[in-house]
Amino acid sequence: MHSTITKIDAEQADFTDPLRSYRDRFDLPDGVLYLDGNSLGALPKTVRQRVAKTISEEWGEQLIRSWNTADWVHLPQRVGRKIANLIGAGDGSVVTADSTSINLFKVLSAALDLNPGRSKIISERDNFPTDLYIAQGVAKQIGKGHRLVLSDAPSDIPDMLDEDAAVLMLTHVNYRNGYRHDMAALTKMAHDKGILVIWDLCHTAGAMPVDLTGAGADFAIGCGYKYLNGGPGAPAFLYVNPRHMGGFRQPLSGWFGHRAPFDFDPSYAPSSNIEQYLCGTPPVLAMVAMDEAMSLWDDVDMTAVRAKSVTLCDLFIQEVDSFADEFGLKLVTPRDADRRGSQVSYSCDNGYAIMQALIARGVVGDFRAPDIIRFGMTPLYLKFAEVKQAAAILRDILETRAWDAPEFQVRGAVT
Amino acid sequence: MHSTITKIDAEQADFTDPLRSYRDRFDLPDGVLYLDGNSLGALPKTVRQRVAKTISEEWGEQLIRSWNTADWVHLPQRVGRKIANLIGAGDGSVVTADSTSINLFKVLSAALDLNPGRSKIISERDNFPTDLYIAQGVAKQIGKGHRLVLSDAPSDIPDMLDEDAAVLMLTHVNYRNGYRHDMAALTKMAHDKGILVIWDLCHTAGAMPVDLTGAGADFAIGCGYKYLNGGPGAPAFLYVNPRHMGGFRQPLSGWFGHRAPFDFDPSYAPSSNIEQYLCGTPPVLAMVAMDEAMSLWDDVDMTAVRAKSVTLCDLFIQEVDSFADEFGLKLVTPRDADRRGSQVSYSCDNGYAIMQALIARGVVGDFRAPDIIRFGMTPLYLKFAEVKQAAAILRDILETRAWDAPEFQVRGAVT
C-alpha cells in the first residue's frame, strides 16, 4: 500500500482548514517541516517586537518605575489568566512562575501537607523523569518515609490507588509515546480513595481542550515552551484548586508569596490566594515573551485545535503504515485518538541516526532514548501537506539507508 | 556649610574617572539621575540586539536545534563563570539559575543536611525578608525543629554563634542601611564553632571586589538584576564551595541537576558537580540577556569600581550633611567606608512622599518601609556631577516642601 491521501487531498485539507490563518502568525524558516513544537514551540511573530519594546522602553527608559507603570509586578497573574482559559481553570487559580520542576515541588509539597498519614506517591515509571526526581527530592526533604511507587503500565494504576496513597501524580500525555490518560476517570478513582491528584499538562496545554475544574483536579503544572510557544525555557504555570487555598502550604516561601511583599515584614505570612505559589522576583523578559505568545490564543477555538491535531496524527500514521513494517518501525502511540495526545512516536533500531538524517533533510522531530523517534503535531502552524511530505522523506531515508552515514551517528549534548 | 565640592570639582572628577568610558555602554534616559541601580541596574546597550538575535535566529530559525548549536544547554555554567570572576570563586563553583529565593532554598537545605544535629539558623531581623521567609519554609518542610534566630544588631552576632547553630545566613550588605559585614571575620568565627556560612551577595556582586574563596565561605547566592545589570527579574546565581560538592544535598532535584539529564533515567542520580544545583530547563531569553550584560565586565577593574563607589557615597553624604539636620534626615549608612556597601540611606519623616517628589524631578532612588530613602551608587554609569546635582535637588525639595503635594502621597503596588 502506498500513501493513503494524495498530495491534492492534503492541499485541499490545508485550504479548508479553519485554523489556517494562524500559520502566518508564526515565523518559520523556509525548507523546514517542523514536527518538534512539542519540544519547543515556534516563534510567534509579535514576540520579538514586544520584547524589544520591554527592553528599550520599560527597562531602558522607565527603569525601576516599570514595576508599577508597566505593571511588571502582576505579570505572573496576567499570564496565568490567559493560560487558565485554555485548561478549564477559574479566575485566580493559575499563575505563571519558575519552571515546571519547581512548580511541581511546590504543589507536591502542598498536596502531601494536605494529606498526612499516608506514605505513597503514585506515578509511572515512564513519566517524564524530572517529575520523578522532584518527588524524590520532596520525599527526602520531608523525611517522613514518603516513597514513590511507579506503575509499569497505565492499566496498573487503578489497583495501586489504596488507603496508603497520598498523591497520584501523572503527566496527562506521555512525553515518549503520546499515551493520554483519562483525566476525569482517574481523578475520580483517586478521590474515592482519599488521594489527591496532580496533573502535569506539559504535553497538553495548547494541544487540546482540558477541563481541570470539571475533572475536579487538585493541582496541575505545565510548561510554557511547547504548544504554548512561550520561547525556550519559558516560565511554567501551576494551578491550585480553590478548595486548597490558604494555610502555609508550599515551602518555597519567597517574598512574592507573602500576603504583603512590600511591607518587608521579617515574618512570613502567606497569601491566602494563588499568589502563595509565587516565590522570587518574576523574570520579566521571559514573562513578557510568554505574555505575548499567549495573546495569540485569545480567539483560538480549542475544539478546532483538537480536531486538526487528530487528523494530522491520523494522516501521519496512515502514511507511515505503508512502510513501517518493512523497516521495523513500531508505532508506540495509540491508534485510538481518544487515548493519545498530539504526537506520533515510533520505536526503531538506529532511531538517533534516522532522526539526524531527517533533520538534515529539513524534517525536524526528535529522538528520545533509548529508541523512540517522535513527531509533534502543532495544529496552529502545521499543514497537512507538510505532514504528508515528512512521511515521504522518512520513507526515502529508510529506503536509501541515508541514516547510515557517519555524520548522523555523532551525538550532541542534548539528544 | 554649603556644598563641599564645587561643580567644577565634580566635573573634574568625572573627567579623570578611570571608569568613565563605561557610561557610554549603557542606555540611560535623558533628564534622569539614576540612583536606583541597586534595585534594577541600567540597560547595557548591546542587550537588545543580542536578545533580538536569539529570538530571531536561534529560536525562530534554528528552533530546537539551538540547544546544541547555540549551546543553550550550558548557559547556566557559562554565565556562572563570568560571575565567578567577580566574586572570588573558582571554576565550576558558580551557576546562574532560578531566583535568589529559590537558590537560597537549595543552599540552605544543603547546609542543614551537611550540619545535622544542630537546630539554629542564625540571621538578622533586618535581613532582606525573602531570605528569612525561605528559611522559615525550609525549616517547616524539614520538620526537625530548626528555628530561625535573629539578631537585632550586627554586634550581637558573634555571641549568637554557639554549638547549637547549624548555619549563619547573612546578607553581606544590608538592603536598607547599606551596612556591610566583615565576611572573612564572621566566616572564621562561625567556622570556629562548626557553623556553615551562607552569604547573600545581592547588594555586593558588581559593586565591589569579593573573595569567597579567601573567606572560606561555604555557600553564596545573589541576584542578577542589581549591580550586574542583567535586566528585571534576571536569573540569580549561587556558589558552592568545592569542598561541599557531591551527595544528594539539595532537594530541588530537577532534571538539569541529574548526572545525565538526557538519559531519561527514572531514578535521580545527582551530578557530583555544581550542576546538581540546577533544577528545571533554563530560561534562555533571560539567560542570554544576563550573559550579554556580564560580557561588559570582562575588563572591569573591581578595585577601581570600589574606589569610585566609596567616593560617590562620600560625596553624596558630604553634600547632604550640609542640610540633613535642618530637615530631619538621619544618615543610617555607616560613614566608615569599610563598613558599608555602595548605597547611602537616610531615615526621615515623609520619606515616601519625598522620594516621589525626587522621582518627579528626575532623581530616581527608592523608598523602603517604614522610613528609609535609599540612593544607590553604581560606579559604571554614575557621574560625580550627577550625585552632586541629586543632592541639590533633594535640598530644594525639602526647602520648598515640594513633597507635600497630594500626588506624592499615592502609593503604587510596588513601593
TrEMBL record, chains A, B:
Highest taxon above the source species: Bacteria
Pathway linked to the protein: Cofactor biosynthesis; NAD(+) biosynthesis; quinolinate from L-kynurenine: step 2/3; Amino-acid degradation; L-kynurenine degradation; L-alanine and anthranilate from L-kynurenine: step 1/1
Protein name (database record): Kynureninase
GO biological process per UniProt: anthranilate metabolic process; L-kynurenine catabolic process; L-tryptophan catabolic process to kynurenine; NAD+ biosynthetic process; quinolinate biosynthetic process
Catalyses which reaction(s): 3-hydroxy-L-kynurenine + H2O = 3-hydroxyanthranilate + L-alanine + H(+); L-kynurenine + H2O = anthranilate + L-alanine + H(+)
EC code: 3.7.1.3
Gene Ontology terms: cellular component: cytoplasm
UniProt similarity note: Belongs to the kynureninase family.
Modified residues (N6-(pyridoxal phosphate)lysine): 226
Listed cofactors: pyridoxal 5'-phosphate
Main function: Catalyzes the cleavage of L-kynurenine (L-Kyn) and L-3-hydroxykynurenine (L-3OHKyn) into anthranilic acid (AA) and 3-hydroxyanthranilic acid (3-OHAA), respectively.
Keywords: Hydrolase, Pyridine nucleotide biosynthesis, Pyridoxal phosphate
Database matches in Gene3D superfamilies: Aspartate Aminotransferase, domain 1, Type I PLP-dependent aspartate aminotransferase-like (Major domain)
Matching HAMAP family: Kynureninase
